[in-house]
Design brief:
- The structure is a single chain.
- By secondary structure, this protein is an alpha+beta fold.
- It folds into 3 domains: 112 residues, Beta Polymerase, domain 2, CATH 3.30.460.10; 114 residues, Four Helix Bundle (Hemerythrin (Met), subunit A) (Up-down Bundle); 125 residues.
- It is built from 16 helices and 5 strands.
- Helix 6 runs antiparallel to helix 10.
- It is globular and about 80 Å long.
- It comes from Paenibacillus solani.
- This is Polymerase nucleotidyl transferase domain-containing protein.
């Protein structure tokens, strides 16, 4: 801690207006340090010059890292947008430039303590971590490196880190210790997939590429199932008028482009148009029914059940570069049925037959505001 004092004195002497906050985190802050523990120091710069204070060094065979975190990144950490929330939450303050800087920093820490009431925020953050996990899982599935076990363990560790970060967010929490030190916290979470410890051990101890990949796949699939269960628990009552107002007016432009593509025989536009129209409409109908959006991580088209169940045509199945007639007919059918379906569900559709009608509507909107 004498090193920490030295840095604070250095800041006061040479960067009094350029560094807002100096703090430390990690084992020293948590009281778990050993004789070999390093001191994790960070600072929040207040000017471009402040970044110049960053330094890494070894003193008496102990490593030190004095590194900068911008206010913007600190805010992301406090908002659970990064997996390093603990750096802000559990750090100990050594120096603040002013009362305003101190209040701003304490406010970030309080934000973490006062967990957002909106569970959807944590589910969204957890989904982002799952997306990252699946990227590394994909790399594992596509690797063709023979017996290069190092590559597989590297990719597997990335899968594990993102999956466990997802788990922490599902539990409205954050990983509080470094990787390898946090197993007790993780296993004590209320929400967790089955056989979590066994699957973690399988990943850490697997000794062949195939076993590493299989262990990562099982854990990730179980985590996705848990995430989807928690998401489903937040389902709300269907509300088309609240969630789909304005949708038809927007999608009609794409429907018209798709009709033109069929009439002119432009298969590329017809291809992407069919995919886009059906996907967007199906996702909105799912959202109108459930109150949340379907995830792209689910390996199925189950979210399209409301679209198809309402009698909307499967445009994609009608794609044919040599015959556009069936697709063209289906697009016309979709436009008509969708408008009627939304009206039946209580959605107001703004359709005017003349410019004068539009002008009267605009005037009415101004009168309502006044």
């Amino acid at each position: 801690m004498k090193v920490a004092d030295t840095f604070v004195d250095h800041i006061k002497a040479h960067y009094p207006q350029d560094i807002a906050i100096v703090a430390y985190y990690g084992s020293f802050a948590q009281g778990t340090d050993t004789e070999r523990s390093d001191l994790d120091l960070y600072f929040i710069p207040a000017s471009p010059k402040g970044y110049q204070a960053s330094i890494q060094f070894v003193l008496e065979d102990i490593s030190f890292d004095f590194w900068p975190i911008s206010w913007e990144r600190a805010e992301r950490m406090a908002a659970y947008q990064e997996s390093k929330t603990s750096i802000i939450a559990d750090s100990i303050l050594l120096y603040s430039r002013s009362d305003e800087d101190l209040a701003r920093f304490r406010s970030l820490q309080q934000t973490i303590i006062d967990l957002p009431e909106n569970q959807e925020l944590f589910l969204d953050r957890a989904e982002e971590q799952l997306h990252h996990a699946y990227v590394h899982l994909y790399k594992l599935s596509k690797a063709n490196l023979g017996d290069n076990i190092n590559y597989y363990h590297n990719a597997a560790s990335d899968v594990l880190i993102h999956v466990l970060s997802c788990l922490a967010l599902l539990n409205r929490s954050y990983i509080k210790s470094g990787w390898g030190k946090n197993i007790n916290q993780i296993l004590n979470f209320t929400l967790k997939p089955p056989l979590l410890k066994e699957q973690i051990d399988s990943i850490l101890q697997a000794d062949t590429p195939a076993s590493i990949r299989a262990a990562c796949e099982h854990l990730t699939e179980n985590m996705l199932s848990l995430w989807m269960k928690e998401r489903a628990a937040l389902a709300k009552q269907p509300s088309y008028s609240e969630r789909m107002t304005g949708f038809f007016e927007e999608i009609k432009g794409n429907l018209d482009k798709l009709k033109t593509a069929c009439e002119t025989g432009d298969y590329q536009i017809a291809y992407f148009g069919s995919m886009g129209v059906q996907e967007e409409t199906a996702r909105f109908m799912y959202y109108a029914e459930r109150g949340y959006w379907p995830t792209s991580l689910e390996p199925s088209l189950d979210y399209q059940r409301y679209y198809l169940g309402a009698g909307m045509p499967d445009l994609v199945s009608l794609l044919d570069p040599h015959n556009f007639a069936l697709l063209h007919e289906a697009v016309i059918h979709l436009e008509s049925n969708l408008e009627k379906y939304l009206l039946d569900q209580g959605v107001t559709i703004n359709r005017y037959e003349s410019l004068e009608q539009l002008k009267r509507r605009l005037e009415q909107s101004i009168e309502n505001i006044e």
